[in-house]
C-alpha cells in the first residue's frame, strides 16, 4: 500500500480520527492513572466545603431564591470544582510536556491544530464529567439536591469544561515554568470562580458588583448548572448559554491559532 493510501486509511478522509482518539485516550489515562489526586482529591474538597457550610451556617441560614441554602450551595460548589479541574487537566498536561521537553512527541504526529485542540479538550471534558457525576450523586443522596433540568445541567457542565479546558491550554502554552501557571490559577482562575455566585446569589451584591458579575463568564457557567439542578437562577439560562458559546468561540479560536503557528511551543 502506498504512503498516500496509508495516510488516507489513517485519516478517514480529512480528519485523523485515530490520532485524535489516541490523544483523547492519552489525556484521560493521564489523569486516571493518578485518580486519587485528580478525582478523589477534588471530591474530598467539595465534600469538605459542603460539610463546613452545613455545620457553620446551614441550620441557621434561611432559604435562598426560594430553596434551602444547602441545595442552593451544592450546584455552585459542583461547578467550581468542575471548572477548576478542567483547567488543571489541560494546563498541567501542556506545561509538563513543555518543561519536560517532550512536547515534540505531541507536535510531530500528523495531527492538525483542530485535532490537537479536540484531543486535549476531550480529556478536560471527561475529567469534568466524572467529577460532576460524583458530586451530583453525593449531593442528591446526602442533602437531597434535585436535578430539575438534567439536559441544561449537562450542557453547562460540558460547555464549562470546554471553556476552562481552552483557558487551561492558553495557560499551559503561555507558561514556561510551573510558577507562571500557578500564578494564573491563584490570581485569575480561583478569584473569578469564587466571585461568580458560587456561595451566594448576586442579587445580594451592591449594584456595581452585581454589574461586574454579569461580565464574568464563570457566573453564567455556575448559574446555568444551578438552573439545571435546582431550577432557579440569577439570569436567563438562554442568555447564559449564548454568553458561554461566545466565550468558547473566542477562547478556542485563540488556542487553535496558537497551535497552528506553534506559538511558544516550537521555540
Percent of residues in beta strands: under 5%
Low-confidence stretches: 1-9
**How would you describe the oligomerization state of the chains in this entry?**
single chain
Count of folded domains: 1
Number of separate strands: 0
String of helices and strands: HHHHHHHHHHH
Secondary structural class: mainly alpha
Rg on CA atoms, Å: 20 Å
Average pLDDT level: 90
Shape: globular
Largest sheet: none
Helix count, per DSSP?
A: 11
Helix content class: over 70%
Distance between the termini: 36 Å
Pfam family, one: ABC2_membrane
InterPro entries: ABC-2_transport_permease (IPR052522), ABC2_TM (IPR013525), ABC2_TM_bact-type (IPR047817), ABC_2_transport (IPR000412)
Membrane topology: Multi-pass membrane protein
Family: Belongs to the ABC-2 integral membrane protein family.
Overall description:
This is Transport permease protein. It is a multi-pass membrane protein. With 267 residues, the protein is mostly helical. It has eleven helices and no strands. It has one domain. Helix 2 (17-32) crosses helix 6 and helix 6 runs antiparallel to helix 11.
Q: Helices, strands, pairings?
A:
Elements: H1 3-11, H2 17-32, H3 35-56, H4 69-100, H5 104-107, H6 113-143, H7 150-174, H8 178-194, H9 207-213, H10 217-230, H11 237-261
Helix pairs in contact: 2-6, 3-4, 3-6, 4-6, 4-7, 4-8, 4-10, 6-7, 6-11, 7-10, 7-11, 10-11
List its traits.
mainly alpha, ABC_2_transport, ABC-type transporter activity, disordered N terminus, single chain, 76% helix, 267 residues, 0% strand, ABC2_TM_bact-type
Amino acid at each position: 500500500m502506498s504512503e498516500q493510501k496509508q495516510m488516507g486509511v489513517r485519516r478517514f478522509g480529512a480528519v485523523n480520527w485515530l490520532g485524535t482518539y489516541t490523544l483523547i485516550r492519552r489525556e484521560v489515562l493521564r489523569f486516571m492513572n493518578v485518580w486519587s489526586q485528580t478525582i478523589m482529591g477534588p471530591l474530598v474538597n467539595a465534600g469538605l466545603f459542603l460539610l463546613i457550610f452545613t455545620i457553620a451556617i446551614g441550620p441557621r441560614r434561611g432559604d435562598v431564591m426560594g430553596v434551602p441554602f444547602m441545595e442552593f450551595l451544592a450546584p455552585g460548589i459542583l461547578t467550581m470544582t468542575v471548572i477548576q479541574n478542567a483547567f488543571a487537566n489541560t494546563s498541567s498536561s501542556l506545561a509538563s510536556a513543555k518543561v519536560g521537553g517532550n512536547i515534540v512527541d505531541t507536535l510531530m504526529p500528523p495531527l492538525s491544530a483542530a485535532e490537537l485542540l479536540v484531543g486535549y479538550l476531550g480529556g478536560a471534558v471527561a475529567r469534568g464529567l466524572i467529577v460532576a457525576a460524583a458530586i451530583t450523586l453525593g449531593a442528591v443522596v446526602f442533602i437531597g439536591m434535585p436535578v430539575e433540568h438534567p439536559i441544561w445541567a449537562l450542557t453547562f457542565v460540558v460547555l464549562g469544561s470546554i471553556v476552562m479546558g481552552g483557558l487551561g491550554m492558553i495557560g499551559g502554552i503561555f507558561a514556561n515554568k510551573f510558577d507562571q501557571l500557578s500564578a494564573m490559577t491563584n490570581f485569575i482562575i480561583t478569584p473569578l470562580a469564587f466571585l461568580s455566585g458560587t456561595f451566594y446569589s448576586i442579587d445580594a451584591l451592591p449594584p456595581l458588583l452585581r454589574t461586574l458579575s454579569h461580565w464574568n463568564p464563570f457566573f453564567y457557567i455556575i448559574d446555568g448548572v444551578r438552573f439545571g439542578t435546582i431550577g432557579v437562577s440569577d439570569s436567563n439560562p438562554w442568555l447564559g448559554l449564548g454568553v458561554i458559546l461566545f466565550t468558547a468561540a473566542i477562547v478556542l479560536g485563540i488556542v487553535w491559532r496558537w497551535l497552528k503557528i506553534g506559538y511558544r511551543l516550537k521555540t
